[in-house]
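Write out this protein's structure.
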Amino acid sequence: MTDKNLLIEIEDKIAIVTLNRPKAMNALNEITLLELQDAFISFATNNEVEVIIVTGNGEKAFVAGADIAAMQSLTALKARQFAKLGHQVMRHIEACPKPVIAAVNGFALGGGCELALGCDIRIASENACFGQPEVNLGVIPGFGGTQRLARLIGKGRAMELILTGNMIDSDEAYRIGLANKVVPLEQLLDTAKKMASVIISKGAYAVGMAKEAIRNGLELDLDRANQYEAELFGLCFTTSDQKEGMQAFLDKRPAKFTGK
C-alpha cells in the first residue's frame, strides 16, 4: 500500500512502515503524522499484522526531525496544536497492541528521536545519530521527548542531551540504553525482520499482554504494578495458547500458537 508520505508493506505478518520524504530527510509534517496515525489505528485490529517495523527511506535519515520550514511561522496556539498531534500519534504507536521495532537508519533527531522513543525496541545502523537538538532552535522537544527519553535512559542523561542539544552516535546510544542493538546499515532491515519473526513465533496474546504489563506498569508504583502483572498473568490462562504452550513444553515439541 502506498500513501503520500508513507510506504507500507505487509509480509509474513510483519508490517514495514517506511517514512518516504527523502528530499526532506523524512521530516515529520502534519500530513505525515496523520498518515502514521491512520496506519497504527489500522494495525491495531489487522489480523494480518503481528509486528510493525518503522524505518526511513534512504541511507541518511530515519527521520531528521519535524519539518522546520512548516513550523517556523506557527503561532503559539498552532504550535501547541501541532505538538498535541505529535503526542497523539506517538501514543497510538506506543499503545499499539502489536510490538513496534524502530529500524533507525541515519539521523533520528528531534521528532525522529521521539518517533523512535515511541517504539518498543530500537535497532540502530552504525551510521545512526540520535539527538533532541530543539534548544538550538529556541524551543523544546514537543512530541514527548522530555518525558520518554528520561524514562528510558534516566533523568541525568536526558537532561544532558536535551539541554545541550548534542547528538550522539549509535555506539553511545547503545551504551546508554537508547538503542537495543547496533548493526551495519546493510543488515539493519534484515536484523529487524529476524527479531520480528522471533516475536511472531511466540504466543501473540502473551506478547500483547507482556507489552501492556511493561508499558502500563511503568506508570504505577511497584506494588500496584505487580498486582497488575498478576491480573494479566491470570488472563493468559484463559487462552488456548497457554494450554498449547505448556503442553508442548511437557511433550518436548515446538508449540503451535494460534493467538487465541
